[in-house]
Amino acid sequence: MNIGSVTAAATFTLIILLAQSVAGEAAEIKVLCANAMGLVMNELGPQFERATGHKLVIQFDVNDVLKRQIDAGDGFDVAILTTPTIDNLAKGGKIAASTRADIARSGIGVIVRSGAPKPDISSAEAFKRALLNARSITLTKNTPSASYVVGLTERLRIAEQMKPKTRFLEGSDNLDAVAAGEAELGFVMIGGFAPMAGVELLGPLPPELQNYVGYTVGVGVHAKEGEAGKAFINFLKAPAAVPVLKAKGMEPITP
Fold first, then answer.
1. Helix, strand, or coil here: 215?
2. I need a labelling partner for 144 at 20 to 30 A (CA). Which of 15, 60, 62, 75 fits?
3. pTM over 0.90, yes/no
């Protein structure tokens, strides 16, 4: 049996086991998911639904917004958020710690307008020069990448020069501003970046400045569909999910 056949057989076996793992009627699983994991969930979600008969109701939003919802008492079955956020929620009794599982991590990338000059960002010094030469940069509000880049300008000792030309925008407005030429450089999580007209990925931050954000999943303590939620987590951690994670720019976290 060749490697492809083994992989296909393993995937088929996994699907059968998952389909059999939750008895009774199909469940409707409410999932709160950070935007950066959106591309992954848009592909793996339907696969899980087909394999198990369960339905995923996914709310995508900025990580901090979803955490505030949970803190305020909003109901959910599964949360896919940054690792520190899930750990904080587990300590606060909102996430069942025994269900916690690391899924993937993503580095930070720089985007530019399609066809625009592409500055060198291959080293710390080149990246610093690119920031200083940029007329404006844009960051997405309340995101790990924004917090890190702000701290990075302080570390590079250019925070004061960057403040007047830094814009903090909501959600995809970050990309729109770059596409429209309103911002010269933008910052995104590479794993959550979906190609769009007018914008292209310049590249990741230089290795010596790169920061990785981990994404972790867990079942809510008061989940209505806890067992189905656990089946979903098992699906996300299965070997069959790895190619999808990699294809979407994520680095899978394996045991």
1. strand
2. 75
3. no
pLDDT tens digits for range 155-208:
999 999 999 999 999 878 989 999 999 999 999 989 888 778 899 999 999 999
Instruction: Please calculate the CA angle 180-248-77 and round it to the nearest 5 degrees.
Output: 105
Please answer whether residues 187 and 145 qualify as being in contact, where contact means their C-beta atoms are separated by less than 8 angstroms.
yes
Measured CA to CA, the distance from residue 40 to residue 44 in angstroms comes to 6
User: What's the DSSP call for residue 122?
Assistant: S
pLDDT in tens, 112-144: 999 999 999 999 999 999 999 999 999 998 888
DSSP lists the bridge partners of residue 166 as 137
The two structure tokens encoding residue 54: 């369960």
C-beta separation of 69 from 63 below 8 A: no
Rounded alpha-carbon distances, angstroms, from residue 152 to 20, 124, 161: 48, 11, 13
User: Rg of the chain's alpha carbons, rounded to an integer?
Assistant: 20
Domains of the chain: 3-106+213-252 (3.40.190.10), 108-204 (3.40.190.10)
Distance CA 192, CA 136 (A): 22
